[in-house]
Amino acid sequence: MIEETIDILTEDGQMETFISRPERNGPHTAIFLLMDAPGIREELRDMARRLATTGYYVLMPNLYYRSGKNTIFGPDVLTEGSQDYTAMRSIRTKMTIPPVMKDIAAMLQFIENNDEVKKGRVGCHGYCMSGPYALAAAARYPDKISAAASFYGTWIVSDAEESPHLNFQKVKGELYISCAEHDDLAPPEMVKELKVLFNSSGVEGELEVHPDVHHGFAFPLRWCYDKDAAERHWERLFALYKRMEN
Asked: How many domains is the chain partitioned into structurally?
């Protein structure tokens, strides 16, 4: 495996991006892995590596780059009241969908001129705050993003600009939306409304609610990690991307 961290030029600056890819048998299909609120950390790098070992060129950007280089937080980032938690929340609460769509455009431009990346279809998935970003990207760039997934995405139905629920009909690829049964950031009422909107839109894909699990179930270092649900998340993701390539 080959991995590196590079800066990708965007309209707003240099976006630090972790890349993991196979050493041989390229070019490879590109996958955009979008971070959750706690940000870039080894736990996520390991998830990018797991994807790359199956033959993908995985890009994972630091979506907090507009706030500077000092946006990689420590293990207490989820401890309410800690310095890192406070710093993360001050950035997270300012995040909106349209700027991230510019970041997606910059990554699409980067891979367009990269001989290591297979031309054509691109996959994109996100966790927590980035679930909506991944779905919005499939609607904003329907001729590029051919498969997108959201895992316990937060507030996919909202009054936010480019909220995913408004644009399902623009998607040309396949979507997969995974929700946890217990999730204050995607409560049952919202999921119920989302399912109705998703089914009525005609978009190809699936919305699945995983029983008896909590928000964050796929992260091995999180208190709520559930091995069975986490492995099911990988199975669904690999299957989605395999269909994209066929």
From this structure: 1
* Residue ranges of E strands in the chain: 2-10, 13-21, 28-34, 56-61, 117-127, 145-151, 174-182, 204-214
Q: Does residue 27 have a cis bond before it (omega within 30 degrees)?
A: yes
CA 178, 183, 87: angle at the middle one, nearest 5?
Answer: 105
Q: How far is CA 156 from CA 47, 99, 134, 160, in A?
A: 23, 17, 11, 9
Residue 194, token pair as written in the block = 């989302």
Separation of alpha carbons 175 and 167, rounded Å: 12
| CA distances (Å), origin 74, targets 47, 66, 71, 147 | 18, 19, 10, 32
pLDDT at 229: 97
**In the prediction, which pLDDT does 138 show?**
98
CA dist list (Å): 88 to 76, 84, 94, 185, 201: 11, 6, 10, 17, 35
pLDDT at 166: 96
Structural domain boundaries enclosing 173: 2-245
For the chain, 246 residues long, the average pLDDT of each consecutive 10-residue run is: 96 97 93 98 98 97 94 94 96 97 98 94 98 98 98 96 97 98 96 97 97 97 97 98 94
Distance of CA 44 to the CA centre of its chain: 11
Residue 63 neighbours by CB distance under 10 Å? 27
| CATH code for position 32 | 3.40.50.1820
Q: Please state, in angstroms and rounded to a whole number, the distance separating the CA atoms of residues 32 and 28.
A: 13
